[in-house]
Amino acid sequence: MILKRKIFKAIRTFFYSVFVFIFISPIFIMLNTSLKKYEDITKWPPTWFRAPLEWVNYKTVLIGEKSILPALLTSFYVSTASAIICLLIGILAAYAVARYKFKLRKTVLLIIILTQMFSEVILASPIYIVFKNLGLLDTKLALIIANVAVCLPMSLWLLYSYIKDIPVILEEAAWIDGATRLEGVRFILAPLIFPGLLTTGLFAFIRAYGDLLFARTFILSPENRTVAMALTDYQSLYKTTWETQMAASVITMIPTLIIFIFIQKFLIKGLLGDSIKG
Length: 278
What we know:
globular, mainly alpha
């Protein structure tokens, strides 16, 4: 029996290791490529982090002619604004659906989840026409509105799943003390579903941060370009400078990586919240 357990544990560890390797290897390849010269990238067999490391690739990406910093700041601004708006609207809408009993409540929830079946490509053209008529093309506001429109249904659904499991008696105690419903949401409900808020906010942030479709459709001027658009600057008709493109990709990962490091504890609680209840 003990031998079988050891064999099972060894097999499980092996498959876990293979699984982790498959997902981690692209990151190592990206890091390795970002520290090479162009002519060394296609050599066979490949070399791994061989000196001298070409840190100049990062200098080129950060302060060179095709600096990625302005686009990075634009993406961070758009993503942060989109996440905040999704949370503000999402928690109020989710609260209304979770707490108020009305006839079409289940229908509303069904419609919300069904909206996720439509591809963003289908939505891009009608949104473009609306923004053109409103004079919002080539503005950061256009990107924020478009990303909020796409992220809000899932944000609402995620927050609804947390709010519906919070006993309403906790809010009723606050109402007896004179608190309004909005104050109950702010001071009672929000702290209780804090991991869920972080999970939802991170979902909206990453979705907006990695957007390329809306950015390509609505943005024309260089000053409003996002980081997803800037990554294509290192490609041309005849050549792709892989070393600078990989360096730019590494830098692009840093904001989301830092955010995840600081909130991973709450994020895991938020993702596993429903599975550990009861």
